[in-house]
Amino acid sequence: MHLKKEDIPVALHVPGAVTARAIEWGDTTVVNARFAAGADAAPLLAGLPGDMCSCPHWGLVLSGEVQVTYADGTRETNRAGEAFYWPPQHTVKFDVETEIIEFSPQRGLRTVYEHIGRKLGQTPFPAKP
Fold first, then answer.
1. Helix spans in the chain (H)
2. What is the pTM of this model?
3. CA-based nearest residue to 96, from 109, 110, 82, 79
4. Among 128, 129, 119, which Cα is nearest to 12's?
5. Which of 15, 40, 81, 92 maximizes the CB count within 10 A of its CB?
6. Of 68, 41, 57, which Cα lies nearest the Cα of 103?
7. What are the φ/ψ torsions at residue 98 (nearest 5 degrees)?
8. For residues 53 and 115, is the Cβ–Cβ distance under 8 A?
9. How many angstroms separate the CA atoms of 60 and 81, rounded?
């Protein structure tokens, strides 16, 4: 299976913050996301355990950079061209416009997206082919 990123359906859109395109393939959700400078996931994750993302992600920063904070207070910056693994219990913010591709367990990501959707009054739903 393959798709051009422009053909992956938009699963979550927050004007001025993020557009996330997602597709569910098997037990994995593939996401291509563009974040605006200044975007911060923390307010959208409030209410999840520890007020952080409860889903692990593996991916690649295509452009820009991501500031990641973990539950233990550890922080790191992932930059363009770097692969990453974010275990559960993290949050992210973006000081510059950034694009990533990530791979996540379908069930875990769906839980996080549904939580964010309720906060935004949206119904995010990663599409299946």
1. 42-45, 106-120
2. 0.91
3. 79
4. 119
5. 92
6. 57
7. -140, 145
8. no
9. 7
- Please, are residues 10 and 20 in contact by the beta-carbon 8 Å criterion? yes
Phi and psi of 43, rounded to 5°?
-60, -35
Q: What is the pLDDT of residues 59-80, one digit of tens each?
A: 999 999 999 999 999 999 999 9
Which residues have a Cβ under 8 Å from the Cβ of 71 and sit 6 or more positions away?
50, 52, 89, 90
Q: Rounded to whole angstroms, how far apart are CA atoms 45 and 36?
A: 17
Strand order in the sheet with 65-70: 75-79, 65-70, 90-93
User: With a cut of 50, which residues of the chain have pLDDT below it?
Assistant: none
Helix, coil or strand: residue 54: coil
Q: Give the tokens for residue 120.
A: 């935004």
**Separation of alpha carbons 58 and 94, rounded Å:** 18
Q: Can you tell me the distance from the alpha carbon of 118 to that of 83, in angstroms, rounded to the nearest whole number?
A: 30
Q: Which of 43, 47, 42 is nearest to 90 (CA)?
A: 42
- Are the CB atoms for 60 and 82 separated by under 8 Å? yes
Tokens 């591709």: give the residue: 101
Distance CA 6, CA 77 (A): 27
